[in-house]
Amino acid sequence: MTRWTPTAGSALALALATGLVCGGAARAQVETHSKAPIDITADQAEVSNARCQVVWRGAAEAIQEKTRLRADTLTVYSRSKGEGANGQPSCGGAERIEAEGHVYYVTPDQNARGDHAVYSQASDQIVITGDVVVVQGQNVARGDKLTITVSTHEATMESNVTGAGKRGRVRAVFYPDKATPADAPAKP
User: Fold this and answer.
1) Based on the number of CB atoms within 10 Å of its own CB, is 178 exposed (0-12), middle (13-18) or buried (19 or more)?
2) How many domains does the chain have?
3) How many CA atoms does the CB half-sphere of 135 hold within 13 Å?
4) I want to staple 106 with a disulfide (CB 3.0 to 4.6 A). Which of 2, 111, 130, 162 is the partner?
5) 69 class by beta-carbon count within 10 Å (0-12 exposed, 13-18 middle, 19+ buried)
6) Helical H runs in 67-168?
7) Is 127 a domain residue?
8) Phi, psi of 15 (to 5 degrees)
9) How do residues 43-72 score in pLDDT, each as one tens digit?
């Protein structure tokens, strides 16, 4: 297993960790510092209060401020708080969010894509799998699995391919910052 661990300067981990969409059975909330509303659209939405689950199907997209999560399907699993009014289950905050198919997570500074993503409150992690590509400016990283620990903003990129010279290993291309003429040192 090959690993790529970005430095503390990587904004992707912070952006992913602070922007995922969460929801209750009939409402949505965000595990971020933002109090901005979340706009969720899809071809259809299915609420199952008995299972404390909401499924958004068909080009599902959740937007909060300048952050967007898009996938074929977004499923939010909330924890059960027991029996509520009229004997109906009462659902609490989100425990897990799954994004399936053509997953894109976009912020103003970076984006990530993959085939599947899961946010788990219990493990405090976001995991994106399946041909993962992370882009920030010109910098690009690729792998099979990106794991982000929300509380520490640490990220690990992994691949199932090992061995020098083999295709499919974790790969990243970074471009150094270029000095602008105003930033360039004066010539003597």
Assistant:
1) exposed
2) 1
3) 10
4) 111
5) buried
6) none
7) yes
8) -65, -45
9) 999 999 888 999 999 999 988 888 888 999
The amino acid that residue 62 corresponds to is: A
Q: Which helix (H) or strand (E) holds 98?
A: strand 89-106
| pTM score | 0.72
Q: Is residue 163 part of a domain?
A: yes
Domain that holds residue 149: 2-173
Dihedral angle at the C-alpha atoms of 111, 52, 120, 140, nearest 10 degrees? Answer: -10
pLDDT in tens, 120-173: 888 988 899 999 999 999 999 999 999 988 788 788 999 999 999 899 999 999
**Higher confidence at residue 162 or residue 23?**
162
Q: Which residues contact 30 (CB under 8 A, 6 or more apart)?
A: 19, 20, 21, 22, 36, 38, 64
